[in-house]
Every structure is written in structure tokens, then in C-alpha cells.
Amino acid sequence: MELFDLYDNLGNKLHRTMERGTPNNEGEYHLVAHIWIRNSEGKYLIQQRNKLSDRIPHQWACTGGAVTSGEHSMQGAIRETYEEIGVLFQPEQLKLVKRFFVDDDFTNYITDLYLIEADVLIKDLKLDTVEVKQCAYYTLDEIQQLIKDKKHWNYERFATRQGYFKALEDN
Questions:
Q1: Bridge partners for 93 per DSSP
Q2: How many domains does the chain have?
Q3: What are 96's strand-pairing partners?
């Protein structure tokens, strides 16, 4: 059973938890980390998800996931990156770009958007093949086209996350 800490609409911890797969109450949020790795050519490392249980099976997305109970956002980001693609980053390599609050039909969550500037080689990745089918580098324009083609997760589909990609590019 995976547990997530709950936060209020200001990001304050509520000292309560929720179980993965269950809805939370209005005004309660759990924490999610999105990790974007940008290389020196300005391309982003994205992954094709490998789980049929995802909202959009085999979609492309950034690395990321839910922050588990007891972790802070950056710890969750480092753990998720290591678990999914086998790369272990140090806290000083992560830059918190922006925090978004998302009210969803099923569960509300806070998205912490991280950027890492690193030249990670595809051949050096150790993919968790349950979670990740493959990885590739794409420009932001190419990612926007994947979104239009409904092949990449559309992070701006919630009005509360408008400016998501602009925040990423401005850093």
C-alpha cells in the first residue's frame, strides 16, 4: 500500500495521508514531481510509458510520479528519476521551476516542476521496463507536436497549469 502525505491549498502539510488509487477530499492535495532533463542541445529527455493502466497507455511524458509519505518533493523527484531511468541526480542538480495546484475530477494534487541541465546518454539509462518502454530526446516544438497528435501527456490541459512549458523554457 502506497501512501501520500496530504497538503492544503497553500502547500502546508495536513499531517494526514491518503492511499494511492483513492480520491482525496476537496481542499486536500497530494504531491507529484515532474522532472525534465534538458541537454546542452536544448532537447528534453522524455519517456514512453509502458503501462496499459496509465490514463493514456504508451503515452510520452517527462520522468515523474507521486511523492510518497515522508518524502519532500525533491527526494521524490530524485527517487522517481532513479527508479524509472536509472539515473541518480544530486539535490543541487535539480531546480524547482514552479509549483502548480491541480483540481482533478478524481484526486487533487500539487505538481512540482523540476528542471535538470545534464547530458544524459540514452545508452546509459537503465529503464524500469514495467514503467518505461523507451526514452528519446525531443525539442519543445517536437513535444508540442506529440501533444497535438495525442501521443504526449498534455500538462497544460488543466487551466491551473497554463504556462507549464513557458516556465520550463524560461529557466
A1: none
A2: 1
A3: 114
CA angle 130, 133, 136 (to 5 degrees): 140
pLDDT digits (tens, 9 = 90+) for 65-94: 999 999 999 999 999 999 999 999 999 999
Across 18-37, average pLDDT = 93
CB 31 within 8 A of CB 109: yes
Residue whose entry in the numeric block shows the C-alpha cell 527526494: 75
- Sorted by sequence, the CB contacts under 8 Å of residue 137 that are 6+ apart come out as 39, 41, 43, 44, 45, 46, 122
Confidence of residue 53 (pLDDT cuts 50, 70, 90): low
- The pTM score is 0.92
Domain enclosing residue 34, as ranges: 3-169
CATH at residue 61: 3.90.79.10
